[in-house]
TrEMBL record:
Keywords: ATP-binding, Ligase, Nucleotide-binding
Subunit structure comment from the entry: Homooctamer and homotetramer.
Listed EC numbers: 6.3.1.2
Leader peptide range in chain numbering: none
Cited InterPro entries: Gln_synt_N, Gln_synt_N_sf, Gln_synth/guanido_kin_cat_dom, Gln_synth_cat_dom, Gln_synth_gly_rich_site, Gln_synth_N_conserv_site, Glutamine_Synthetase
Reactions listed under catalytic activity: L-glutamate + NH4(+) + ATP = L-glutamine + ADP + phosphate + H(+)
Entry-linked PANTHER family: GLUTAMINE SYNTHETASE, GLUTAMINE SYNTHETASE 2 CYTOPLASMIC
Protein name in UniProt: Glutamine synthetase
Transmembrane residue ranges: none
GS beta-grasp domain: residues covered: 4-87
Domain GS catalytic intervals: 89-341
Length: 341
């Protein structure tokens, strides 16, 4: 019999931005295979996470995905959904709102973030009491003058790959101390699971380095890029239609519900979506081919492949919940797509 460490991970009930929580369950197994079927539900004190009252504090953790834990011997990362005591989805459970049971929707998220020094509480590369050189030389830079945090970022990438996530890349972003990683999954729920597990590994790794991660979309005021989580998405219609008119009709479907999208795209996003620094204004809606200043970008590759590909919603903030973002995009795109099947 082997002792297995199961790290149950969930999202708390804090507003406007939920936080990751986790706790370890140690079980004995004869021949553990790392499958969901081998896991049981668990519970936690919801009164400590703003998800229940003290008089009825139990909330349920229902496993939805499991990955090897690359930082533990005989360890596994268990992503869970929060349920009420009666088994219904908790109001904080964004995953339960996703209408994609057939995995028709594919998502690729680009997660931007700032690495913060815990001592100075400034992004890496920012001197105390001042500012580094202006933007321009940090994006995809090489060398100690402009590149900050590479060892940390490389270790995080290795952890994600060892955990079995469909990790697709990393790059330093436009501001000093700002980085990005990319993940892709066939299925909206799976994409959300993997972003949250990648964020968990990122946050846990900071404990070793004396850093913390800032997901606020505009943590440094002034002439600095904010952080987003661009959502690249497709469904069968977008992947196969071969029609500019279909693409434009799907894009237009976003216009009347722009405010509903912004409402779940992350808190304080108004500070980032100003119309500057590669963003569209939060008060406008636009789309265009290869336009990084638009709300939705139609990638040039999609056009070159005869209007077969995907779209990129550039509005989601770095602190957004990928479950809620995907759910809202699907709610907008699915009814329009039905006409073209």
């Amino acid at each position: 019999m082997a002792k297995i460490k199961l790290e149950y991970i969930w999202l708390d009930g804090y507003k406007p931005t939920q936080n990751l929580r986790s706790k370890t369950k140690v079980e004995e197994h004869e021949n553990f295979q790392g499958t969901l079927e081998e896991l049981g539900n668990w519970s936690f004190d919801g009164s400590s996470t703003q998800q229940a009252s003290g008089g009825a504090s139990d909330c349920l953790l229902v496993p939805v995905a499991i990955y090897p834990d690359p930082m533990r011997i005989n360890g596994y990362l268990v992503m869970t959904e929060v349920m009420n005591a009666d088994g219904t989805p908790h109001e904080s459970n964004g995953r339960a709102t996703i209408d994609d049971n057939d995995n028709d929707f594919w998502f690729g998220f680009e997660q931007e973030y700032f690495i913060m020094d815990k001592t100075t509480q400034l992004p890496l590369g920012f001197p105390v009491g001042g500012y580094p050189g202006p933007q321009g030389m940090y994006y995809c830079s090489v060398g100690g003058r402009n590149t900050h945090g590479r060892d940390f970022v490389e270790e995080h990438a290795d952890l994600c790959i060892e955990a079995g996530l469909n990790f697709e890349g990393i790059n330093q972003e436009v501001a000093s101390g700002q980085w990005e990683f990319q993940l892709f999954a066939k299925g909206a729920k799976k994409a959300g699971d993997e972003i949250w597990i990648a964020r968990y590994l990122l946050d846990r790794l900071t404990e070793k380095y004396g850093y913390y991660i800032e997901y606020h979309p505009k943590p440094v005021k002034g002439d600095w890029n904010g952080s987003g989580m661009h959502a690249n998405f497709s469904n069968e219609v977008l992947r196969t239609c071969g029609s500019q008119a279909v693409y434009e009709e799907i894009c237009e479907a976003f216009r009347p519900v722009a405010k509903e999208h912004i409402a779940v795209y992350g808190a304080y996003n108004d500070q980032r979506l100003t119309g500057l620094h590669e963003t569209a204004s939060i008060n406008d809606f636009s789309y265009g081919v290869s336009d990084r200043g638009a709300s939705i970008r139609i990638p040039i590759i999609t056009v070159e492949k005869g209007w077969k590909g995907w779209l990129e919603d550039r509005r989601p903030a770095s602190n957004g919940d990928p479950y809620k973002i995907a759910a809202r995009i699907i709610k907008t795109v699915k009814p329009v797509s039905e006409k073209f099947k």
